[in-house]
UniProtKB/TrEMBL annotation:
It holds the Pfam family WD40. Belongs to the WD repeat POC1 family. WD repeats lie at residues 9-50, 51-82, 93-134, 135-176, 177-218, 225-259, 260-292. InterPro entries: WD40/YVTN_repeat-like_dom_sf, WD40_PAC1, WD40_repeat_CS, WD40_repeat_dom_sf, WD40_rpt, WDR55/POC1. It comes from Ardeotis kori. This is POC1 centriolar protein homolog A. The keyword NAD does not apply. May play an important role in centriole assembly and/or stability and ciliogenesis. One of its GO terms (biological process) is cilium assembly. CDD domains: WD40. The lineage of its organism: Eukaryota, Metazoa, Chordata, Craniata, Vertebrata. Keywords: Coiled coil, Repeat, WD repeat. GO terms for cellular component: centriole; ciliary basal body. SMART domains: WD40.
Amino acid sequence: EDPSLERHFKGHRDAVTSVDFSLNKKQLASGSMDSCLMIWSMKPQMRAYRFVGHKDAVMCVQFSPSGHLVASGSRDKTVRLWVPSVKGESTVFKAHTATVRSVHFSSDGQSLVTASDDKTIKVWTVHRQKFLFSLSQHINWVRCARFSPDGRLIVSSSDDKTVKLWDKISRECIHSFCEHEGFVNHVDFHPSGTCIAAAGTDNTVKVWDVRMNRLLQHYQGNAVVNSLSFHPSGSYLVTASNDSTLKILDLLEGRLLYTLHGHQGPATCVAFSRAGDLFASGGSDEQVMVWKTNFDAADYGDVLKTQKSGSSVDGTRRTLQSEMDCGVHLKKTKIQDPGRNHAQQEEMTSLTNTLEHIMGQLDVLTQTVCILEQRLTLTEDKLKECLENQQKIIQNKTS
């Protein structure tokens, strides 16, 4: 079943810049060029909250992992933390000297990372609301910064056409990805933490492995890509583009699954809910739309089943195939040196083919390890669940 439009929110008076779901999916936050933050209730007939406080356009919004706070960044150079209730109280963080483009909570909710046109990335403590440190190696506006799921790394994207990977502890830049030919609007970590995806004004989405710093996939579109979001399963990616479309990419198959038309004018932002059954989009048409994922129920289950049951060969082959579709493997080298005899040429060709084969096998191994890691995580989670249930049973018996 194809994704379908579920809800339609109208209330912003200018382009929507950012959307995010709360953990329980009861609320959706959106930021807009109209300087307001809106919190929409997913329950029908419930009124929306409009939060006023920023003195200029709100560029980004995000719920804390618990859902008790919403962070926003603005063109007024400040970051605000809001309590998403009727009162809409907020506290202000000031440290950037230009527009704040991006806010993101670490998965434990303790830290906040912000990115700004002042070319820096800043990290803050949420509870003490204290500025901790700056990362400054970008040479142009920083559009986006995100923590890795385990909180050890930070990834950032900039108008200097690079994506940078930082170590949060040492505060060093550990790698720069320079393959984009335009500004890099958005970047995020795959739920496994092993890959990142970046969207750019060069109309592409690129996926890299952050352990080997290798380009895994490359999707070429025909319009600027403004935003992207990974499905919690890690198997899909949704993008928002200037041609007003949302696109859903199947990362296992390495292909475009759906193109969705809903916005009139550029689609500026997109985000999956924490469970993956919904996603929201915003556009320069001032509208916020909520979509039912639909493809999710069957496929998501299959993906997890595949990882559990051990048919990793299939998963591996598909991932590898997508890498090949994206042209990321050794090009066949044609040897045309008239000075060499025929036997030497054949030997060279066969050597090249052998090398390609070895590269292919290495890729398969890498992907298998990746799948094994995911399976291990699933097993650990199940084990934790079993132990917790056992504790509960013991406690109930003793009480």
